[in-house]
Amino acid sequence: MSLVINNNLMAINAARNMGSAFSMLASSVSRLSSGLRVTSAADDAAGLAIRELMRSEIAAMHQGARNVNDAISLIQTADGAAQVIDEKLIRMKELAEQAATGTYNSDQRLIIDSEYQAMASEITRIANATDFNGIHLLNGNLSGENSAHVGSALVPTGPLKVHFGSGNDCSEDYYYISINNATASALGVGNQSAAGAGFSISTQSAAQFALDAIKNAIVSKDKIRANLGALENRLYAVTNLEIMAENLQASESRISDVDVALEMTQFVRAQIMSQAAVAMLAQANSLPRMAMQLIGG
């Protein structure tokens, strides 16, 4: 190679190699500092697209698991209120049994009936007052078949739809929670219900008929609680969402996370190459001085 003054080709070559080494060093620093192998689309365009889809699925699964936990809390709230209604019905059964015997006079039965009606009114109050996040649970708003659910309005009607899947492709992405009416009139007890057995225990015969009506009310209430228990157990089984999210997170990690050991070797290599390029550029920049020495003689 000729010794020239106008163009220092060795310095240009060293500068280009130094820029390449600094680029590699900057990439390694970015990956090691962020912990990501894919920090931009330029690193791995296909990998970035797959990673973002996986991240959206993971986020949706975690939210789905939270939705399930909220639904379980809702069911437990309804079941707790139904348990209190159960206690009231048991007391009403006890009062009806007391009024059904002939050892009490009419005035005493009226006193017994007043407590009976008070228990019925309390059942209705509990059913109307029990709510979860503003959603009334036992007043019949959530009753009906699954097909009765309408979610197109601002306030959904019919059974409550619990969504936990990451899509909306099939019935495996959601469950319905249907809870029948648990007011005293719906159970057929108290003077708020239709006239008939269970309406009152103010007479001996009425108290005797009320025994069967209260038994039917307890069975109806037990069906509500059994349905709630089955739904709660079914929702607990959906906790496999966390397992699915964990496995998907592992797949996403293999795509996007940096292998620190491997990247550290690349960092050291780029660092050494950068230092060598800087040193050689300094040497190359001194070559024109040799020409000046020849000119100066």
TrEMBL record:
Keywords: Bacterial flagellum, Cell projection, Cilium, Flagellum, Secreted. GO terms for molecular function: structural molecule activity. It holds the Pfam family Flagellin_N. Residues 5-141 form the Flagellin N-terminal domain. Its main location: secreted. It is found in: Secreted; Bacterial flagellum. GO terms for cellular component: bacterial-type flagellum; extracellular region. InterPro entries: Flagellin, Flagellin_C, Flagellin_C_sub2, Flagellin_N. The keyword Secreted applies. The keyword Membrane does not apply. Residues 211-294 form the Flagellin C-terminal domain. Belongs to the bacterial flagellin family. Flagellin is the subunit protein which polymerizes to form the filaments of bacterial flagella. This is Flagellin. It comes from Desulfovibrio ferrophilus.
